[in-house]
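Example 3.2
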Amino acid sequence: MDQYKGSDVDKYRCFMSGEGEKNTTWRYGKPPTYEVVNKLFEEGRTTPWPAGSLEEQVQNLVKTWEMELFHKINPKDRKTTDVTKLEIIVNGRNPLTPEGVAEIGGGYNMFLQTSLPKNLRLYDPTEETVDTAHELFTTTFEKGFAMEILHVYSGPPVIVYKFRHWGYMDGPFKGHPPTHELVEMFGVCAMKLDENFKVVKMELFYDRGELLAGLMKGAGATTVATATGGGSSACPFS
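Structure, written as tokens:
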């Protein structure tokens, strides 16, 4: 996994510059910059992993995968995955290929899939596009939505890890005013790699309601239990 050591433009993410990226089609015309969210990450992470450790390499792999998912339009430009084999399964739902993710509107919609009735959806993936979702979440989380690896349970070829995402609600979200409070969510992922350390399968498990409830603490907070499905017995992923 030596290829996941960061790059000359970002110390946590690879495949953002150089000869290998000269033909990459970037969603917003150029590679993204991560100075602001990297600062949030470094100030808020719970464990700075040793350089070269498995945990650091997995963390860099996941950060790079997320960068490619959201910013490289053509799946063939994504170097963390074998796009001819890749399957992504979110909370036991049907597997998605890269083409399938694009069809449902990109990464945000993939992560926030739901079968809740439409009138109970604070965030409705069927009504959002790649661009509207990007604008919504980057406005809500002005400093970004950082990710850290909390624990790696097994190494390649099947990596199982626990992760944490967090940010501060400094902008509005679907009519809910900013609270400037910490919003975080936790999850587990099983990631299968091939002999070249490219991802060929991912299974993610987390509670989307954990994120959405954190975005409903301002005006209208009384609807949290309804829109997120109530307690754990009514998980909105089902």
